[in-house]
Structure formats: C-alpha cells, structure tokens
C-alpha cells in the first residue's frame, strides 16, 4: 500500500480551491478510508501573484504545466481550469505519463469524452468526471453504478445551477434578470463566460453526457436541441404562474426502441411536478428505469465545495484502484446504433402566447385551426392588452405530437387575424415519467 498519493491540480479557482480545502480539512477521513495520505503537491494557475488560501510551504504554485505533468511523483491530475483545447492537451500528456485524470470540465467531456476515455484505457489510466454534471449530486455514479443493470428510458432534470438561480430570483423575488445573473457570478455558480449557462449550452453538454451514460450509446453534442433563458419575457413567467406553472430550464433525454431524443429548453412545469420546487442553484435529476421505476437525485448543482465533493469521490475511486492495481476501465462499444426520434414520435403539451387583432371572430378562427389539427386546449386565457386593437391569447394544449404543434405554428403565422406568435414553450404536467403520463392522459 502506498503511504502517500500526490495530486496535481490544474486550476485553483472556485472548484480547485474547494478541492484543496476538502483535502486539507478531511485529511483524517481520507487516511482512514484509503490507508494513504493525500496531498496537493503542485497547482497550475495563470496568475502566480494572486492571493490564495493555500499553504505555499506544502504546495508548489506554478504557471508551467510541465512542473505537474512531468513530475513522476504525481499520480493523479485534477483538471479544474476549464476551456477545451488546452485542457485536452494537458490530459493527453497526463495519460502518456500514465497519470490518472479527474475533471469537472463538461465542455471537454461533452466534446471529447469518448476519445479521452479510450486513450485513458489504452494507457491503463482512470478517467472520471462525476463533477461535470449536476455539481455535488452523484448522478453519474447513480446511473453507471446504482442503475447499471437497468434499461434507463428517460432522464429529465434541472442541470444548470446558474439559470435555476436566475429563474428562482426572477419568479420568487422579482429580481431582474441582469441582477440575478450578477449574483450567480459573484457566488461562483456561473461559468467564466456565462453565455453558455444562459443560452442552455452548459445544460446541453451535461445532457449529452447523461444521455451517453444512461442509454449506453453515443450522443453527440450537436444532436442536443438547445434553447436557453436569455430571451424569456416576464409576461410568460407571470401567465405561467396564473395557470399554475413554474418556468424552469429543463434537460430531457429519452430512449425508446433505440430512438433517442435529447434537448434543453425552458419549460413550464406544473407547480405539483417534483422538479418545480427545486430552487436557486440546486439541481435535480429524475431517472426512469424499466426495472427500478422512478428515481430522483437532488442537491447543489454548482459552487466550490459541492463540486469539489464530486471530484473527491472520483479521486478516492482512483486511489482505491491504485492500491488494487486495477486502473483503466475497459471501454465498451455503444450498445446499439441509435436513431434520432422524429417530430411525429415526440409528444408533449405546449403553451402558446399570441397577439391577435382585437375583433369579433378571432378566437373561433384560432380554435378552428387547432381543431383541424386535432389539437385540443387544456387552458385558455384571453386578454386585451394595452396597445390599440391588439388582444392577447394564451393557451395550453393537451398532448400532441411535435410535428402537429409545428404545423399549427406555421398555419397561425398565415392566419390574417394573428399579428404575432409571441412565445411558445413545452409544458409538463404533474408527473414526470412518460409511462405515468400515458396513464394520466388515459
Ligand atoms: N464553478 C462551479 O460551480 C462549477 C464549475 N465546473 C467546472 O469546473 C472547471 C473550473 O471552474 P471554476 O473553478 O468555476 O473556474 P475558475 O475560473 O474559478 O477557475 C479557473 C482556474 O484555472 C486557472 N486557469 C484557467 N485557465 C488556465 C490556463 N490556461 N493556464 C493555467 N491556469 C489556468 C485559473 O487561474 P487563475 O486563478 O490564475 O486565474 C483559475 O485558478 C470548469 O471546467 C467549470 O466548467 C463544474 C461544476 C461546477
Ligand atoms: N455554471 C454551471 C456550474 C456547474 O456545472 C452551473 O451553473 O450549473
């Protein structure tokens, strides 16, 4: 048994500092669990002059990656610097030097995860990335460990802390979008460039990773349909509230008969839906497995210490493997060759807000258009708005195919009484699973 395991940290920001703090504060627990002392030997940073809460006697701070990647005493690299290409190059160098790698970098894993996993395996190295999805929630191990023997059919969740924080503050406290985003940045939840958070790309990266692991098939980032929260209007949050819904940025991945659909979109959730109560930076991921049924994982989705906890769970796994001499998991081929689900195979309820002419007969023109497509309404609100001769119609449909709903949008644009299709969003009812939903609809 090795008495000492040395770690090299690439990055000492929000997450890196959390990792150093846990290693320092939980030293005894780690020794008890692993039989070895764990220490952070060196840390790579951009700015060596920054004041940092780390013992410089114990830990060497450097701007030269070779100090870490070429140090034979370092066994495990923890990559928490972010970015894609530079991080990928350092990780490849680490594998060549037979070092194990743990990362929180979902941008990198979503784009290059399968390639890196394969190279790790060829080098008999471990490559883990628990922290890349849903911060402190052990969701990847939940899927690849706890539910590994099940056929997972659906994964649905709130997987971005920043947007959930913004939506909670806007909805519950009336804070403006800009102020809420600023708070999320100050609290260390947002990415260095928060565009990826608010445009849904961060959640899309996480959903690609979740889809791959849940369905044991390849899911490419470009196959994930994405829309973010940047263009949300307060009016839709307010109408949502009136109708009994809460707006959330929801990631969804479904797999049926080897057909897969993965998307991220603002969604109006019934206030009774289990994800509707997930607030602030908290995340929750609902997983439906054929054998297990419904499961849900909940916890902090962003922030230094929660994310560092997930990283340390990977580090502990790596060190256990070092002691057993079993590093480098075998890579398995995708279990099946998937197809993407087509619009006529995807079903849902939809919220729609229209600006129409404020005149007699408009509502019946709109309803007959939906009637022709066999789309019925669950809820309707009709409001004259302040602008002269303009009225607003807000409706929620019953279940229909995406193909059918798209047809209704095209036809509405051609209807002369419709002035503007202001917004439309997916709606989720009280239950989470497709299976439970089918029963509810019947
Ligand atoms: N923050 C969070 O809640 C979560 C973050 N993540 C992921 O974890 C990773 C780190 O995030 P976070 O800690 O928030 O990021 P920060 O921006 O807080 O920290 C980044 C760190 O990496 C260093 N760094 C960045 N680029 C380079 C470079 N080219 N060369 C050397 N050092 C570099 C920075 O150095 P310096 O200090 O000198 O600027 C800094 O110490 C990202 O991949 C992020 O997506 C994952 C889950 C949650
Ligand atoms: N910016 C991300 C950080 C964690 O992955 C988020 O807000 O979820």
UniProtKB/TrEMBL annotation:
PANTHER family, per the entry: HOMOSERINE DEHYDROGENASE (PTHR43331)
Keyword list, A-Z: Amino-acid biosynthesis, Methionine biosynthesis, NADP, Oxidoreductase, Threonine biosynthesis
Cross-referenced Gene3D superfamilies: 3.30.70.260, Dihydrodipicolinate Reductase, domain 2, NAD(P)-binding Rossmann-like Domain
SUPFAM superfamilies: ACT-like, Glyceraldehyde-3-phosphate dehydrogenase-like, C-terminal domain, NAD(P)-binding Rossmann-fold domains
Pathway(s) of this molecule: Amino-acid biosynthesis; L-threonine biosynthesis; L-threonine from L-aspartate: step 3/5; Amino-acid biosynthesis; L-methionine biosynthesis via de novo pathway; L-homoserine from L-aspartate: step 3/3
A UniProt-annotated Pfam family: NAD_binding_3
Organism (species): Virgibacillus natechei
Name the record gives this protein: Homoserine dehydrogenase
UniProt xrefs under InterPro entries: ACT-like_dom_sf, ACT_dom, Asp/hSer_DH_NAD-bd, HDH, HDH_cat, HDH_CS, NAD(P)-bd_dom_sf
Enzymatic reactions: L-homoserine + NADP(+) = L-aspartate 4-semialdehyde + NADPH + H(+)
ACT domain boundaries: 351-426
UniProt similarity note: Belongs to the homoserine dehydrogenase family.
Entry's EC annotation: 1.1.1.3
Obligatory cofactor(s): a metal cation
KW Protease (keyword) present: no
A single GO molecular function term of this UniProt record: homoserine dehydrogenase activity
